[in-house]
Amino acid sequence: MNYITKNKPELLAPAGSKESFWAAIEAGANAIYLSPKKLNARAYGKNFTIQEIADLKQTANKREVKLYIALNSLMKESEIAECVELLALLNEIQPDALIIQDLGILHIAKRFFPDLKLHASTLMTIHNSLGVEVAKGLGFSRVVLARELTLKEIESIAQRVDCELEVFIHGAMCFSISGLCLFSSYFGGKSSTRGRCVQPCRRVYKWGDRKGTFFSMDDLCAIDLIPHFKRIGISSLKIEGRLKPANYIYTVVKAYRSVLDAKDDKEALIKIEQAKEELKTTTGRPLSTGFLLNKNPKDLICPTRSANTGLYIGKILKEQKDKIELSSKNELPIDVGDKLRIVLKSKDKQFSATILEIIREQVVKITLSQVPEEFKAKLTGALVFKSDVSKDKNRLFSGKIEKFQDKALFKRAKAISKKILSTLRRPPKIERIGKKKSQEIELFISIKDIRQINHLHFPKNIKGIFLELNPRNLKELNKAKIKKSLKEKIIWHIRPIIFEKELNEVEKLIKLVAKGGFRQFQVANLSHLALFPRKAKLFSSYQLNALNSLALIELNRAGINCPHFSIETDLKNLAESVKWYKKSPILTVYGFIPIFTTRINHRLYNPKTPVKSLKKEKFFWSFDGSIGRLYPEFPICFLGDFKKLFEAGVYKWIIDLGYNVQKTGKHKHLKIPQSPSQLSKKFKGRTFNLFGQLE
Q1: From CA 496, how far away is CA 141, in angstroms rounded?
Q2: How many Cβ atoms from other residues are within 10 Å of residue 184's Cβ?
Q3: Is 685 left (phi over 0), alpha (psi -120 to 50) or beta?
């Protein structure tokens, strides 16, 4: 089949600056996505003011280029007013779409700004056809699929849905499945779902007697696969890189543009080879096809390689003051003004410097702008990467910005947002529950293996037992001889990741337990909402990332009877959210929580040996044959100051005993107390962000 049989997909480029915006346009992007200063998943970037966004929208219109706004951060309760005003402003500007992940932002946009077109962010972890259909039903016109899918899985989804699909084709990849990474938040409150990730996956770790970057992924490059994406009818091909310099954006967009514009298969092959040579010059990490050709690719991670971005230049042979000599040839693609990243041989320290002078002889001698004192006399053997071109080259990307002429924009949006907030802050129309008596809780226990039920001593008034829905547990259901009183309290947990070919099996399991009289389930992904009839009682898990009252309300409206609040939250945000939600969400107050959830299982990963950070933190690896998880040494535990949970209005608690990193068995004969004070004595752990601050 000739691949030019479908409409040509849109080429979507990132812009973190005006220079990048112009670079994308000049290179031939059909659409550009960028972010305002707030509520975006690249909080550390420069980003744009509302006035700049308004001007760039006018400019994009004139160039017949679409402009999408990435408003893809999770929203805290205190940010709702700011979000409403921002949406009111954007509604006046009318971008071509908003890219969002927060269900609270979805709630505001659907209810008050129906003219805004919405795209579901990859951070919503939509990875199968049911997830796409649910997202469409919620009001999204396009879904950005998870980056962990194979080409066959993407094609299978495309054949089953009637919705625009967007896929990433180039740029940085995360070790954890997008939307499910808790590492950066767990150690310091800097949430990846709020755009503040400090990239712990890029750091050096020690696993047994090996030292390396075990969780640092190579960059994605799908240039070879563009003909396939055209054939299966993907709507948009997306390049990652809002933090990348303009020169990088220009080179990458131009390379993909040339392949997309090929007239036939023969020309496409020629263009692909040319494009691959161009892409080699970009300042990224080594390139791979990601998961597209293999669900567990062998070359996606190389622990012995530096995790730094940039074009590798060479090793330092010799240093003298601010001068270095490189081992590479004198034809190196570097010029005065270019930026270099110098990484020590140990790979645990680095710094950046600008090239002031180059002498090209038998060896290349470079004068750097500066070498910090702590690095002097330590640079021999260090690795050198070109991280950016000179500012003069980046400034080549510029043009005339069309001015947004509506002077009343801000005044009008402020009036609209004030009116909307007065509506939002009325008591929501959901069931009210009377105030709980002091220290009266609704306790739930979560387990993984059904055999644990007979090894645990539950309190008499236990409200529910979350149990993973899998063939093994169903097989053991009749053998286990569970008391009827406990059997009636089972709530079947659906695992968060169900790839396309696994959907039929999960649907069969749900029908089997429903036939057996079970009506309670816990969902962990939007796709799960399509699996159940209305008569089922649904709980959600923390993986659905509800961080504000409006997200809880939206989950209610989607069919969730008892939504779970985000475990990343701090207490102030939790209390404020519950105040407006008017009843208690459910909250996991104890358990070992995976800080990475991934599809990768490298041959060096050893579940019997802990992996250690350079700060001596320990982590434990687990792989179930499909998904890998990295657990911290200590569980989370919010029970040390449980009275504050009551004060916040949270009394539905989950004790998660599904995974025990200390490997002490199946919690045999563990007696679970009912009272909060006894629970606080029984279970200990880290408080995560609850008594600190989530950034």
Answers
A1: 23
A2: 22
A3: left
246-260 and 265-279 are packed helices; what angle lies between their axes, rounded to 10 degrees?
Answer: 170
Separation CA 8–CA 230 (nearest Å) = 6
Task: Give the pair of three-digit tokens for residue 442.
Answer: 């609704």
pLDDT in tens, 262-308: 999 899 999 999 999 999 888 788 899 999 999 988 889 999 887 77
Domains of the chain: 10-173+218-283 (3.20.20.70), 179-216+594-634 (no CATH), 311-388 (2.40.10.170), 435-592+635-682 (3.20.20.70)
**331 has a pLDDT exceeding 80:** no
Distance in angstroms (rounded) separating the CA atoms of residues 42 and 121: 13
CA distance 587 to 584: 9
> Facing residues of 540 across strands?
523
CB 268 within 8 A of CB 227: yes
**From residue 403, how far is each of 16, 25, 61, 400, 683 by CA, in Å?**
19, 17, 12, 9, 60
Retrieve residue 240's tokens: 């990652």
Whether the pLDDT of residue 231 is over 60: the answer is: yes
CB atoms within 10 A of CB 449: 18
pLDDT in tens, 362-396: 788 999 988 888 888 889 999 898 888 877 766 68
* Entry field: residues in the chain: 695
Give CA–CA dist 568/587, Å, rounded.
Answer: 11
Residue 552, SS3 per DSSP = helix
Instruction: Please give the single-letter amino acid code of residue 319.
Output: E
How far is 364 from 619, CA to CA, in rounded Å? 42
What is the residue-wise DSSP string for 619-638? Answer: EEEEE-SS-EEEEESS-EE-
**Structural contact between residues 567 and 688, judged by C-beta atoms closer than 8 angstroms:** yes
653/572 Cα distance (integer angstroms):
18
Residue pointed to by tokens 């007979």: 454
Q: Please list, in sequence order, all residues whose beta carbon lies within 8 angstroms of the beta carbon of residue 536, skipping any fewer than 6 positions away.
A: 514, 519, 520, 521
- Amino acid occupying residue 533: P
Distance CA 63, CA 140 (A): 26
Phi, psi angle pair for 324, to nearest 5°: -130, 155
Q: Are 132 and 180 in contact (CB under 8 A)?
A: no
Of the chain, the end-to-end C-alpha distance in Å amounts to 50
CB 471 within 8 A of CB 477: no
**Among the listed residues 329, 344, 356, 335, the one whose alpha carbon sits nearest the alpha carbon of residue 384:** 344
Do 581 and 549 form a contact (C-beta atoms < 8 A)? yes
How many other C-beta atoms can be found within 10 angstroms of the C-beta atom of residue 261? 13
The rounded distance, in Å, linking the Cα atoms of 324 and 465 is 63
- Model confidence band, residue 429 (pLDDT cutoffs 50, 70, 90): low
Q: Give tens-digit pLDDT for 405-417.
A: 887 888 999 999 9
As a whole number of angstroms, the distance between CA 248 and CA 308 comes to 15
| Torsion 574-577-579-583 (CA) sign | negative
